[in-house]
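Reopening this ticket.

The earlier resolution said the output was attached, but the attachment link was broken on my side. Pasting everything inline this time so it's all in one place.
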Amino acid sequence: MQGRRVVVSGGGTGIGKATAMLFARLGAEVAICGRRMERLAASAALIEAATGRRILTRAMSIRDPEAVAAFVGEVHDTLGGIDVLVNNAGGQFPQASIDLTPKGWLSVIDTNLNGTWWMMQAAAREWRDRGQPGSIANVVCLVERGSPQVTHTIAARARVIYASKSLALEWAPYNIRVNCLAPGAISTEGFRMYPEEALRHMATANPMKRASDAFSMAETLVYMASPAADLMNGAVMTVDGGMTMWGVGWPAGRPAYFAGGE
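Inline output:
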């Protein structure tokens, strides 16, 4: 990754933080964005101390297309271009779907779907206008069997997956690759939002009987951006320990109706 320019959204915590760290350790120049400056600053300080590389940070909302375009342009101007965009930013919360409010639904859809799209479009426009190639990796989730109690994020991420497949074809003439990473249960700060009973189930809800970690996902994202994957386009890399084949998780806790079954 020596000399590569990498943007990671949601770089203040979890997978985004680990991904920014790994790219920087491998020689890349890295820019991170997120909503909370204190988290970005802490992440940047940790990465800079470990790698000796300065990290460009920007506190912003990916829901704002104007802020996204300004950030992408700033990174191009500051770093001389962007080679890799990792769309990691997103959010969700576990709740019975029948009780979701319009605000809760729209908030997750706006971040996970629209925000991801604004980032992809802004990066692609810069690449097209500057005649530069690019690689996009969108962090999504397991959607094949659905996921009760997080219907909002499943709806958004499924749309991101199929948008990515469409863009992989449409943007190939610009030499822009678009792929997705679908993690299973990943032990990060995000686990704190789930009830204890749900965590016990989620952490072992795959044939490997364990959760993965943020750096495993970072290593996959680095591979997807590397020359080793230069023909990977329109793909979904599933890294879930076989969770897709194992059963359905219950992020808010398994209802009594389904006790004893998957």
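Reporter confirms the inline version is readable. Helices lie at 14-25, 37-51, 65-79, 102-130, 151-170, 196-202, 214-225, 243-246. The radius of gyration is 18 Å.
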